[in-house]
Amino acid sequence: MRVILSINNLRAVYLVREGTIKACDGVSFDIEENTVYAIVGESASGKSTIIEAMTLTLPPNSKILEGEVIYNGRDLLKLSENELRKIRWSEIALVPQAAQQSLNPTMRIIDHFFDTVYAHHKNWQNNEIVKKAEELIALVRLDPKNVLYSFPHQLSGGMKQRVLIALSLVFKPKILILDEPTSALDVLTQAYIIQLLKDLKKQLKLTLIFVTHDIAVAAELSDRISVVYAGNIVESGPTRDVLKDPKHPYTQGLVNSIMSLISDPEKIKGIPGDPPSLLDPPSGCRFHPRCTYVREECKKEKPPMYSLNSNRKVACYLYK
Ligand SMILES: Nc1ncnc2c1ncn2[C@@H]1O[C@H](COP(=O)(O)OP(=O)(O)OP(=O)(O)O)[C@@H](O)[C@H]1O
Fold it and tell me: Which parts of the sequence belong to the ABC transporter domain (predicted)?
């Protein structure tokens, strides 16, 4: 399958009073067209930073230090603001985390569609915008007559999430990136959003990239997965293979703790210690202080991504 987006050695930091937070530290992965890619990790591991760096939507106190984001043969990090505007939303759309709160409480849903279209300088007629909004709201299985003329507070969390997905599709993007699309939703609504995303992917031939802390959601929705620990990708591969036979000691700990939670909560082992501060992360492999297999080289040099086969990669000296 064709690679549609290629991220190479992406590094981004936040500048804060105490120093620099190294939240995305040399991250690389390829996204194949018409697949679903999950970026999985614990809270504060740098998942949002990765996708915000990829889409150049990081906050002002951040800095991209190096890397490439190759889309259609061009490095997005080198484009002008004007060139980027043509790609954002029209080719690559992002639904940020907690986006439900980003709906303006004083505006009806239809007004959000008007605003989005105007913000991208599209000279669509108002009736065209209404027609498009109706079509998209129906596509996410909501009733356009009710929903388009409602205010956000009149909708449930799941309905707002579906409205945001509809809004993100307004210019028919090829890639849809979602940050925690199912968090803060009850289990049934989560399942509904997962099914909806699967159907939209098929129907619209979308490539989906999403961030989640929930391995069950990644297992359900994604074809491929990257596991993030403290700003680094530690393992990538087909979701089923990675979860069935995790290779990196961190992924092993993560998967084991979830499996024991499901099968026998009494036996949860967890991973000893806590994730490090990204202000002053450990040298070498950032997981080494918590790793049972730690050896000298792990403390010195960050391990490269070793290819186990054409499909799987792991950043651990055990696989040198
Ligand atoms: N605007 C910011 N300024 C300073 N530090 C930030 C900023 N945004 C994120 N961080 C820090 O960067 C690190 C990575 O955060 P990030 O939001 O990317 O993680 P995450 O894995 O997406 O977590 P979560 O699932 O909780 O959102 C954290 O230590 C976080 O506190």
Answer: 5-255
